[in-house]
Input
Amino acid sequence: MKEQYYLTAERLEELKKELTELKTVRRMEVADRLKRSKELGDLSENAEYAEAREEQATVESRIFEVEDMIKNAVIIKHNGDTKVVEIGSIVVVKRDGKESRYSIVGSNETKPAEGFISNESPLGKAFLGKKPNEAVTVITPRGEATYTIVRIE
Output
């Protein structure tokens, strides 16, 4: 089964723009670099040529990766249900008297410092399917942590 990538519509657009940039601008830059380095002579001892080839492989690999993500994208559509946590939900939780707010997103959009956590992360997995006032215990590197779901937005 193909891997599915849970993305917001905004992230999908960002990936499409990145793909266009990679296929046009970046490919041309690498091709020019390869051409210039070939003109320097002996390719077996040409470090610039080797670096350009490595950069070409990196660009082509990223193109393949982005194309795969676009092709297998599942757009996150939060249906407004505030009864249960799902991908796309914003969940407000309380731990040790302190409230935190998390957006449950796909693994390609995580920004934990900004409150965007993956549906595949231990915390994200623990929240999925839970309802307000439910307690959730998660095993963290520092031990167990218990969160209470305050509300779902």
Q: What stands out?
A: The two ends are 32 Å apart (CA to CA). The longest strand covers residues 143-152.
